[in-house]
Amino acid sequence: MQWARRMLLAGVALAGALLMILIRLQHPSGWLLKQQRGKDGEEDLDSLTTQTRSRKDPCTKLKQLGIHKIAFVLKTGATEIHDKLSIHLLSLFACLRSGMDYAVYSDLAQRIGPAEVKDAVALVPYLAHDAHPEFRHYDAMKEHIRRGGDAKEMAGEAAWHLDKWKFLPMISESYHFIAEQDKQWVFFMEADTYVSPYNLLQWISRLNPHQPLYAGAQVVIGDTEFAHGGSGILMSGPAVLALRNEYLANQNHWEGIIAADCCGDKVVAEVLLAAKPPGPLHRSFPLIQGETLSSLDWSEIHWCRPAITWHHVDAAGIDKLWKFEHRFLRVADTNAIQPGITFAKYFDAFIFPRLEAAGYRLEGWDNLSGDWVFTSVENPREGQAEYNVAAQTAEACEHFCHAMPECVQWAWRLSSCRANKIVRLGWKFEGRPGMGSADDRIDRVGREGLEGAVAGWVKERVEEVRKRVGKCEGVDVWETGY
């Protein structure tokens, strides 16, 4: 009897052990996550990563390529954060540690998933807070949330005006990445910016982190040339420190400048020029640039060069670009300098297949043509498009493009014909995304003007462009400063 009882208990124990093994095999990451939790409930991410990720996993490969040298700082606002932050936490930031490898700044402190969101506006002294009208929106939003409202309900132009106050305190505070986390670089981005970590790592391998380097896509307002914040800004440790020292030494002065200016990214350049040592802009276009796959002019300037950033990209676009990047990370040689993911590769992956699948013609579409602009309205007023019979019908517009040797695409809608010398994809008229400060570039048309709207591309000329500009031999693909 005792023997039978022992055998039964042994059988139960064996069955239990087998069940645990099956559970672990079925859900290995969940089991490892529990095993890696410390006394304070936090995971040992490095240990977890090595046990659950393969050598082809993008996070593992980025670590091998040197992603630990860069801190990423994302700037956003409380009115948009829930729409835009999550995709970053599921892509690049999933490979990084909040507070140690990346930071998120907004105008409302909160925790979203693994990200501890900091309030950059709270870093501005109360003296400036009380003196300038932009902060009334900040106070109103805090009160609205305290009463149970959602920050998104406070979206509008007032939130945009508040944004300029975030730049200097955010960059100044990010120096802790250099001092405490041993980072060499800080990359500043916005919530609708996609940054290619693969291309960024290839680029910084050619730059000196010990010099005060301030780099980005150059924009000029007045007499100031500066790096456009939405396109992304790269700063070395010495540059961050130089800005921090100048800003903190003359904080009242610079807050007065911000109050009177339009743009925080512009004032960043002015602070760096006044710093010791001064930090003039390292022009970095087109590697760092502010277009999307749909809005970019696919020209020779871009073609052979690596695309480090894209701007005005929605969550679906970031997801698409991140997955595309996986292909290159899987085969990247960590012991050799790589050529980077060029604009040409993006064109061949996303634009060319789309045009081919559509038969080089898309209904209800705007391909952003603008080199020739005609109207079928006779005697147009001054400042309007030139009269031309090409605007009378889609067929006439297409015929005009074919008759012009430089024309590669055309677009027709009621009373309007547009044609272009450079390939652009564009969007469907209905449901087109906004482009923030660049929104005025999009031709807004009422529903009545869209009947029969169509866009087309000249197949042979698009293919000829690919062959002609695709010869990248002898080109310094990392050249910038256009």
Automatic annotation (TrEMBL):
It is a single-pass type II membrane protein. Pfam families: Fringe (PF02434). One of its GO terms (molecular function) is glycoprotein-N-acetylgalactosamine 3-beta-galactosyltransferase activity. It is found in: Membrane. GO terms for cellular component: membrane. It is an enzyme of class 2 (transferase). Pathway: Protein modification; protein glycosylation. Residues 172-243 form the Fringe-like glycosyltransferase domain. The keyword Transcription regulation does not apply. The keyword Glycosyltransferase applies. Its EC number is 2.4.1.122. Its main location: membrane. Keywords: Glycosyltransferase, Membrane, Nucleotide-binding, Signal-anchor, Transferase, Transmembrane, Transmembrane helix. Transmembrane segments: none annotated. Belongs to the glycosyltransferase 31 family. Beta3-Gal-T subfamily. This is N-acetylgalactosaminide beta-1,3-galactosyltransferase. It comes from Cryoendolithus antarcticus.
